[in-house]
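4.2 Preliminary Data

To establish feasibility before requesting continued support, the project team ran the inverse folding procedure on a target of 392 residues. The structure was first converted into the token representation described in Section 3, and no sequence information of any kind was made available to the design step. The complete token record follows.
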């Protein structure tokens, strides 16, 4: 059973359990599905889908993979992708932008190496959360520091002690996987001139460069779409009809992703209206009696709220004030509480098959989201390191 059907059934049950008239229930659900941040995400999904489809049709993905393989040994592709995702996400402060830029390349590389696509895509998704968690310009960092009343630098230093060990352990895993015999280069690429290959990769280079420059992700993807089409026309890889068809098919391929995101937003509104988030909060905090217990409660609060909201920024906003109160009462350093809020929200967000990041990665790679989840080694190791951080 796919996620659209699952979310549809859950939505029907949730609406049936609500109090009030049918019109009131549907209105609450619809407001949640139509909130501005979700609609913004829909535009990102559509532009990312059309860019990936157009870039593939005009040969940008194959050219990018070919150039990468020509300068990097096959054994280093997995760790190289992970490091690239870490650096880009840290620079631009967003996991979504990083995933939109790198996942199509990762998926294409998986076709040219004897490596599962889920592993290749997982290296990008995991690396994207490294920057989402640490970057000074990440929205989760900004919200976590504001709700806990700490400076960005102080939160970064506390967070770095958790994220760096997890990243190094993950890198070691990818190096080991890259050295295994099955990671061998395929000879499926046809030879082409380096100048043509460089020209074909221009859309991807532009997307990555604009993202690193801090340009809005919507504008980045829009420019990428235009460049991919124009370059495709110039080199004779596309006709105008081909370009239009690529845009249409790319957007159509994201429809399942969009439906799941909208239904998740509607369900969140229903849960919030019914007091579900308040109930979870009260149950988790009633037995706190020590600093370690308070830190555990902070971690659990933001993690469970993130499961309900499917948005790490919203989750931190929802419980940040309460976590600050818990921290003051039980002597938790606000730098630690800010770090835990950001870390656990990123861990959970990356593992949610209905979260925006996995939805867009699955859509771009044409993979079920659940095939990527077991390959998110960074998120699992980040959880383990963060838990040890609390217990020490």
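Position-by-position output of the design step:
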């Amino acid at each position: 059973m796919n996620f659209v059907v699952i979310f549809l059934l859950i939505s029907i049950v949730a609406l049936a359990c609500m109090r009030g008239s049918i019109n009131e229930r549907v209105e609450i659900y619809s407001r949640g599905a139509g909130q501005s941040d979700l609609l913004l995400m829909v535009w990102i999904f559509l532009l990312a889908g059309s860019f990936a489809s157009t870039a593939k049709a005009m040969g940008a993905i194959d050219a990018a993979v070919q150039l990468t393989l020509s300068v990097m040994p096959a054994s280093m592709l997995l760790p190289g992708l992970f490091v690239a995702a870490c650096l880009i996400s840290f620079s631009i402060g967003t996991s979504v932008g990083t995933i939109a830029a790198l996942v199509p390349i990762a998926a294409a590389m998986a076709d040219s190496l004897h490596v599962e696509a889920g592993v290749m895509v997982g290296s990008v998704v995991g690396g994207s959360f490294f920057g989402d968690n640490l970057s000074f310009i990440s929205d989760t960092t900004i919200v976590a520091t504001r709700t806990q009343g700490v400076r960005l630098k102080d939160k970064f230093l506390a967070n770095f002690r958790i994220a760096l060990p997890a990243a190094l352990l993950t890198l070691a895993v990818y190096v080991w996987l890259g050295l295994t015999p099955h990671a061998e280069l395929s000879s499926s690429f046809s030879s082409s001139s380096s100048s043509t290959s460089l020209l074909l990769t221009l859309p991807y280079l532009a997307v990555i460069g604009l993202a690193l420059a801090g340009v809005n992700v919507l504008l980045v993807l829009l420019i990428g779409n235009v460049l991919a089409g124009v370059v495709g026309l110039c080199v004779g890889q596309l006709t105008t009809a081909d370009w239009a068809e690529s845009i249409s098919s790319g957007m159509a391929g994201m429809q399942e992703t969009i439906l799941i995101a909208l239904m998740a937003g509607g369900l969140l509104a229903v849960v919030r209206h019914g007091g579900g988030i308040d109930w979870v909060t009260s149950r988790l905090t009633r037995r706190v009696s020590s600093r370690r217990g308070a830190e555990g409660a902070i971690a659990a609060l933001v993690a469970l709220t993130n499961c309900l909201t499917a948005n790490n920024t919203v989750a931190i906003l929802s419980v940040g004030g309460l976590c600050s109160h818990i921290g003051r009462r039980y002597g938790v350093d606000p730098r630690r509480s800010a770090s835990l809020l950001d870390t656990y929200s990123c861990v959970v967000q990356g593992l949610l098959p209905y979260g925006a990041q996995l939805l867009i990665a699955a859509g771009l790679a044409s993979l079920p989201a659940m095939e990527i989840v077991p390959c998110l080694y960074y998120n699992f190791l980040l959880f383990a390191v963060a838990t040890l951080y609390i217990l020490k």
